[in-house]
């Protein structure tokens, strides 16, 4: 029996139930988990997981629709946009702060999970500055609750749906809820922010404490805190109140000091990289490391990408020799595990050594004439070569920016 994709399964559902016509008449359409599964046998929890807009079924994307859980096993499809859009770069000045002293069990330059990043943000005083007062961690984890709201004039009455908070911090005047992510996403589902806020506003009614919510992105070494605002119908990121921090660091490493490596450290049996955003490559590397049994599906769900794009990013990591695939599971290689133990400066130095051991990349870095035989090793020719060079040039700019944040000393590496 031929395997049916999620998009094909949703097309069958929309056709069978005349969903577009029903939404046109009633403003929304409610569908049960059983109804979703009975045509093609696909589990509703997988068919309805849309943490990012890119994960919406094509039939919903094409018709401006979305799907949100309203009860356990019941979902509402409507012409709404339940995603918060975030700018890629911090929209404020990045404040440099000193690394915490007397902390040896948590390295501020080697954070591998959202909880660790939040903990160091609390220890260093970032959170007090973001929240406007001293706070303590009082909420973390999952629960179920009830709440109601409107989005683009469509009502949602939520009952028994899972609500998760990465970190909730209570002070004298406020309760601050944080949704944390390692790496940048251009959008996230309001379920991750609005549901916890509305739930805790109900729980704290009459206590005169303001409930506020923030998106927290740990992007390489940058800590970004972006508040969001819900006006009763539309939700937006408030970038003009964003705060961003970075720990002070000093490195002797610069790209100018890099010498040509006599040994090629990349795997030339893997397609030449075609992923411009190395920040996302790094974030996917960290997310693979923190999952117990990561798969293509589980990692793709974490990011604002589709499966085809994920293959591009995973191939970069495989090309660098830091991860492998075995069946459906992804795991770090010995090299990947070693790099994971390094702080971010040393890890990036190793990334650079690996990447620019490839003669094609080194020639691009130094603006040298390319050897056509190197391109033949990847079966690259014609206009494809220029498209691949765009990725290399983007990486060069990325690493130059990263290493210029520190204060390089004079000296030669290798």
TrEMBL record:
InterPro entries xrefs: DUF6996, DUF6997, DUF7226
Domain DUF7226: 290-398
Domain of life: Bacteria
UniProt domain DUF6997: residue ranges: 80-232
Residues of the DUF6996 domain: 7-77
Name listed for the protein in its UniProt record: Uncharacterized protein
Species for this entry: Sulfurimonas marina
């Amino acid at each position: 029996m031929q395997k049916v994709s999620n998009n094909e399964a949703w097309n069958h559902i929309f056709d069978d139930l005349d969903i577009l016509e029903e939404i046109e008449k009633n403003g929304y359409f409610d569908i049960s988990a059983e109804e979703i599964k009975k045509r093609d046998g696909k589990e509703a929890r997988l068919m309805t997981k849309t943490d990012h807009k890119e994960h919406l079924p094509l039939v919903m994307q094409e018709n401006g629709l979305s799907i949100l859980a309203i009860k356990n096993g019941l979902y509402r499809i409507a012409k709404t946009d339940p995603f918060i859009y975030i700018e890629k770069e911090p929209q404020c000045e990045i404040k440099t702060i000193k690394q915490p002293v007397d902390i040896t069990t948590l390295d501020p330059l080697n954070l591998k999970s959202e909880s660790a990043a939040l903990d160091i943000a609390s220890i260093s005083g970032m959170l007090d500055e973001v929240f406007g007062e001293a706070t303590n961690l009082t909420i973390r984890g999952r629960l179920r609750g009830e709440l109601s709201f409107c989005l683009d004039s469509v009502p949602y009455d939520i009952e028994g749906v899972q609500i998760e908070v990465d970190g909730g911090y209570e002070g004298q005047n406020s309760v601050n809820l944080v949704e944390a992510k390692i790496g940048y996403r251009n959008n996230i589902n309001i379920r991750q922010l609005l549901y916890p806020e509305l739930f805790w506003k109900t729980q704290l009614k009459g206590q005169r404490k303001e409930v506020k919510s923030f998106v927290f992105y740990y992007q390489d070494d940058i800590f970004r805190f972006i508040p969001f605002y819900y006006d009763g119908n539309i939700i937006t990121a408030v970038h003009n109140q964003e705060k961003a921090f970075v720990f002070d660091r000093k490195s002797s490493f610069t790209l100018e000091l890099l010498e040509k490596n006599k040994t090629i450290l990349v795997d030339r049996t893997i397609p030449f990289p075609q992923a411009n955003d190395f920040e996302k490559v790094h974030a996917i590397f960290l997310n693979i490391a923190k999952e117990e049994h990561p798969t293509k599906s589980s990692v793709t769900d974490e990011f604002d990408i589709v499966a085809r794009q994920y293959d591009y990013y995973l191939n970069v990591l495989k090309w660098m020799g830091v991860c492998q695939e075995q069946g459906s599971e992804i795991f770090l290689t010995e090299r990947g595990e070693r790099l994971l133990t390094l702080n971010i400066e040393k890890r990036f130095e190793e990334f650079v050594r690996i990447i620019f051991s490839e003669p094609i990349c080194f020639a691009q870095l130094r603006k040298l004439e390319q050897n056509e035989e190197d391109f033949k090793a990847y079966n690259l020719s014609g206009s494809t070569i220029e498209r691949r060079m765009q990725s290399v040039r983007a990486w060069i700019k990325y690493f130059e920016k990263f290493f210029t944040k520190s204060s390089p000393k004079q000296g030669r590496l290798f």
